[in-house]
Amino acid sequence: MLPKKIVFLYTEIAAYFTSCINELSEHAEIHVIRYPVNQEAPFEFKNDNAIIKFYERNSLSYEELVKLISSINPDAIFCSGWIDKDYLKICKSYFSKIPTVLCMDTKWKGSLKQKLASLLSSIVIKNKFSHAWVPGNVQKQFALKLGIKEENIRLGYYCADTNYFNSCYVNFKESKTAAYPKRLIYVGRYYDFKGITDLWATFIELQKEYPNDWELWCLGTGDIKPIVHPKIKHFGFVQPADLNKYIEQCGAFVLPSRFEPWGVVVHEYAAAGMPLLLSSEVGAKETFLRVGENGYEFEAANMKDLKEKLKKLFTLSNESLNLMSKRSNELSQQLTIEKWCINALELIK
């Protein structure tokens, strides 16, 4: 029996996505149309998997895109959101012939715009997508409002490279048990909506009020200038293959976002065995955070609440931190690359 042929109509790809499709390529022939790499997150991709074919979206007109996909003759199409109108036209042309899967991370918030979108879904969505693949339950509610049948919706759309991050947990578990590293790590872009300035200001204020051994390590780039402080270190963008060097030396993960539909990075650092400190806007807390068991939640943009939760984390014993580390890793296993592939294949039966 010939393998299934799957087309991904994608925007910007990330390292975690390539790890997932590498695994999926053992079960299907993969074709990915992609946007250029974001210069603020310049992931380096080495395509040494002959079964996966990549195509540059910017070099394809709509007519060329139609011709390419026709030549592939796919058994299923996965489309990343609805931002690309040509992608939508492609999905409409294949609708009812093969599974056309809407991949989205938008939360249902019941806004006027979303209510209008759900009313117009018969025009925008229902005649283009037979299925939906979403990260969590809040996104599932939106997919239902858009008219996708519940039996055609799957969770777990975003998945970390669990093999890599779990290996970090296993490799560093012994050394962290002996001497737990008192370093908090932030991994993300330096943008206002990420809450990065809230984090810096709160961390500095807490250091003045409650001097302690903890440092803050920040990995990322953006339009906000890195703050200068003796206990805050900046490392710029780090390629995924090099993250283990930082994971080994850090003991907890923080994501203070004011807006974060999901946040695959939460799954990554849960798998790496990090206690988590997440804002109320981080969607991934639904799956990977159990308050008090493996970390804490604070109200987004509420620096007083953030400071309270930081202090709570900083006063934990090494034993408690190690127990949280173990619990984070356990929760991360709810979704693995292998389970991601099962979800993908179930969607295209």
Write a concise keyword list for the protein shown above.
alpha/beta, six-stranded parallel sheet, 16% strand, 39% helix, 14 helices, 349 residues
Describe the structure.
With 349 residues, the protein is of the alpha/beta class. It is 39% helix and 16% strand. It contains 14 helices and 13 strands. The protein has helices at residues 15-24, 62-72, 85-94, 112-119, 121-124, 137-145, 162-178, 196-209, 244-247, 264-271, 285-288, 303-314, 318-332, 337-347, and strands spanning 4-9, 28-34, 52-56, 76-80, 100-103, 131-133, 153-154, 183-187, 215-219, 232-234, 252-255, 276-279, 295-298. The strands form two sheets. A seven-stranded parallel beta sheet has the order 3-2-1-4-5-6-7, with helices on both faces. A six-stranded parallel beta sheet has the order 10-9-8-11-12-13, sandwiched between helices. Strand 6 (131-133), helix 6 (137-145) and strand 7 (153-154) form a beta-alpha-beta unit. Helix 1 (15-24) crosses helix 14 and helix 10 packs across helix 13. The protein is globular and about 65 Å long. The chain starts with a strand and ends with a helix. The mean pLDDT is 94.
